[in-house]
Design a protein that fits this description.
Blueprint: E1 7-9, E2 15-17, E3 25-31, H1 40-50, E4 54-60, H2 72-83, H3 102-110, E5 126-129, E6 135-139, H4 149-157
Parallel strand pairs: 3-4
Antiparallel strand pairs: 1-2, 3-5, 5-6
Length: 158
Amino acid sequence: MTVHDFTMTAIDGIERSLKDYAGKVLLIVNTASACGLTLQYEGLEALHKANPDLAVLGFPCNQFGAQEPGTEREIALFCETQFAVTFPLFAKIEVNGAGTHPLYAFLKTETPGAEQGSEIGWNFAKFLVGRDGQPIARYSPRTAPSELAGDIAKALAH
């Protein structure tokens, strides 16, 4: 199994196979619009723009402090107007608990916890995925996107 085996709902409601990203390095992030870490959207967008073979994929989640309460339309508008986000955003999902989306269950199994065992610790946890769809590493929500540049460069070189 790889990340490419999953189909996700994009923020506009259209189903999208992650096979569409085969051959690219992925940075998968659970995001939130009203979080102390929301400014990370800037760094994520910078990574996305700087690396044509890297796709940042944002998955809004309202499980941490109810910091993503809006609708998909409101989230998309916020990201576009406040941070000029151009990387793909998806519909809200759950990343912990009984409702954990299968993609996140897979990611957590393949890259054990950076903070809280197998659970996601907070908004903006990050997973680096190789061109082959296999998870490479997991990063703490507090890890700034710019700190991933070296690991991303290594993944892009393969």
